[in-house]
Structures are given as C-alpha cells and as structure tokens.
Amino acid sequence: MKENKILITGGSIAGPTMAYWLNRYGFKVTVVERAPELRLGGQNIDVKGPAQQIARKMGIENVIRDKNTTETGLRFVTVANDTVAEFPKEDTLSMTQELEILRGDLVQILYDKTKSNVDYRFNEHITKLTQLQAGVEVTFASGTTEQFDLVIVAEGIGSQTRKLALSHQPEFKYLGLHTAYLTIAKGPTDSSWARWCNAEKGIVFLLRPDNYGLTRASITFTARENEYKGLSFEEQKSVLIDRIKGSGWESERLIIEIQKTKDLYFDRISQVKAPSWSEGRVALVGDAAYCATPIAGKGTDLAMAGAYILAGELSTATTHQEAFEAYERKMRPYVEKCQKLPPGIPGLVYPQSKLGVGILNGFVSLVGSKAAKSLMGLFSHGNKVPKQEINLPDYVDK
User: Fold this and answer.
1) pLDDT-based confidence at 1, cuts 50/70/90?
2) Contact criterion met (CB below 8 Å) for 215 and 263
3) Tens digit of pLDDT for each residue in 242-296?
4) Would you give the DSSP letter of residue 93?
5) 328: three-class secondary structure by DSSP
6) Inter-residue contact 278 to 329 (CB < 8 Å)
C-alpha cells in the first residue's frame, strides 16, 4: 500500500498498540494525545484472550505479569461486611484474571515499547480534518497544519475527532447506569481480595487492591441517562456523595475520600453502536468505534484486537479502502458478541430494595458454594484452556 504516513489520535491502549504494529510494518507513525502527559490513572483491567495473545506477540506479556495488581480473587460481601461467597483468581467465575494490571501501568508499558520509534505529541489534538484525494489535511490545536495519508481515531467513547471525521455519528446505547472511579488510601478492612458489595437503591461498591499500597474504588448505580449531565468536577463529587450517603458498608469512608480526591472519573455507562468504522481516509478503533462498557469486561480485548487487525490489514492490503473493509469484516462479529449482555443484565445485578439485595446475595452464595463449584467442575472436564475468541492472523509472516 502506498500510504505510509499515519496519524493516530489517542494515547491510551488502542493507539500505542496500533502504533507498535504499524511501525513494525514500516509505516511512519505519529500519535497525538490531548493530555499534557500520559494519562496513567484508572482501575484494574485484565489482559486475557486476544489481548494476552497480542501482548505475547509484542513481547510484553512478562512485563505485564511483573506489574500484577496483587489481587488474589473476588469476595462478595454484605453491607455488614460478612462474606457471601469468594472466588479465587484460579476460579473460572472469578473477576480476577491471570494478568491483572492497572490501566495506567499498561499504558506506560505500551508507551515504553513504542516511544523510540513513534513520534508522540502531547498536549495536542485535532481541531479540523479536510479529506483530500491523496491524504488528509489535519489542523491541530497548536495552530499547525500537516498532511497525513491516513488518520486513525483511537480515542474514548466521547471522541471529539470522531465528530469531525464522520458524517453519520454512532448511536449510544445507555445501560441505565452511572459509574465513578477513584483511588483511595488503603484501609484496615482492605486486603489482597477485591470486595463487591450490593447496597439498596441500585448501588454496587467495588474495592480492589493495587500494587502501590492503595485501593482502587468504583461506585456504580442506577440513574436516568442525563440525570448528571454537564456537571463541574465539584458538582460531580457533590451528587455522588448525595447518592451514596446512608447506604451503609464503607460509604462514609468513601464520602471522605471523594471530598478530597483529585482523580475522580464519573460518567454514564453506554455502548457505542457505529454503522461504519471508517469514512474516506479516517478509521476508528477501540472505544471510539465500539465501546462495550466495563460491564462486558472486554474493553482491553477489543482495543488491542482491533488495533492489531487494522494495522495488519493496512500492511497487507493494496489500498486503504480494502484494509478498512477487511478490518470491519473481521472485527464486527466479535464486537457484536462482546456487546451482547445476558438477559436481565445489568438490571438484575443492581436491585433497589433490601429484599432484592438479599435475594441476589443468596444466589451468589449458592453459586459460590463448594457443592455448586464441584458440580460445575464435573462439566468442565478439567479443560482450562480458553477457546479462541477471534482469529488473529500472523500478518508479520505474510
């Protein structure tokens, strides 16, 4: 393919992953990131399935393993902090995976792997895109204008560049939930176990250990779609405190931490449903194209798999149109599978009443019992090798 000067916008996971493979295939790559430096915040993510395969191909699997969060498994607890059930890391039902890492640590690993061969520009973003017959004219916030052969949008669910690039914007499927993330001081009740607590009024608290002696907290709850839209940072903190006040468990501890935090993330949970992931010489990858939400637990898989496949198709196709079509043809079935949630999810996991919370905890207790685990073991036949979720061709050998 003649096009070899490629701009990627977004320096989180999908962007640097794609930058690595494009550089390996001989493309000249520039990555722009709106933030003044790497955004190293965030919660625990797991590197499994396609993401683990790609990490292995990139030679960073052991680096990721060395940055393990130290989490040994998941405990479901009541508002009195009594254990309902526990699922160790090796349990097939556990949220904790073999490669559990903080989002920021993975971002740093990917950046370190690519910074020597990729032109990274921080504190920069695109303000205008003009598609030409032979390229894309890009105007940056800094006032400079530069032409690239292709532009790849690897931004988040609220991507601003996507609005500039596509004439038809994606739909957003709201899942009825808002979520908040923050890092808090480790407390006396914290351990190497993650703790999940359901409270009344549709609230789920989740506290997870990290490898820096701190605790990563998330608060997810039911809400109307635009109930908290357009709030300032301080207003977000205020409404979050009001929402969890009096809900029990460790809510008072979390209220104190919310009051003083500077790294709060607070937003609604929605999936991105885009009819097309490209237009002209611009393509989307990762959350900007097909966010599945944290509920699906497939964000890292989708980001890294999409970046790997799109880069690989660009390396083997004769035209960018051919590459974009092949990328979408290979990725869309996997995206649709990842975005499909079981019936009643997420609603059933966020009961409103004390009775509903009790019923849910009873069900979790049953599933987590020794008898239930033994029964499920009879049907697993001892096979712990996960089946392949999506085909990842060895483009480098073609």
Assistant:
1) low
2) no
3) 999 999 999 999 999 999 999 999 999 999 999 999 999 999 999 999 999 888 7
4) T
5) helix
6) no
The C-alpha atoms of residue 113 and residue 91 are separated, in whole angstroms, by 32
Alpha helices in 73-232 (DSSP H): 103-114, 160-165
Taking only the tens place, the pLDDT of each residue in 49-96 is 999 999 999 999 999 999 999 999 999 999 999 999 999 888 777 788
Instruction: Let me know: does 178 contact 220? Beta carbons within 8 Å.
Output: yes
Cα(68)–Cα(230) distance, integer angstroms = 36
Query: Both tokens of residue 266?
Result: 């607070």
Angle at 257 between CA 75 and CA 38, to 5 degrees: 90
User: Are β-strands 5-9 and 28-33 bridged in parallel, bridged antiparallel, or unpaired?
Assistant: parallel
CB 377 within 8 A of CB 38: no
Rounded to whole angstroms, the Cα distance separating 260 from 182 reads 11
Q: Residue 86 pairs with which residues in a beta bridge? A: 75
Judging by beta carbons within 10 Å of its beta carbon (0-12, 13-18, 19+), is residue 343 exposed, middle or buried?
exposed
- The interaxial angle of helices 14-24 and 103-114, nearest 10 deg, is 20
Question: Which pairing describes strands 214-222 and 171-185: parallel, antiparallel, or unpaired?
Answer: antiparallel
- Provide long-range contacts, Cβ within 8 A and 24+ apart, for 225-229: 225/174, 225/176, 225/268, 227/178, 228/178, 228/266, 228/268, 229/268
> Of 367, 260, 305, 325, nearest to 55 (Cα)?
305
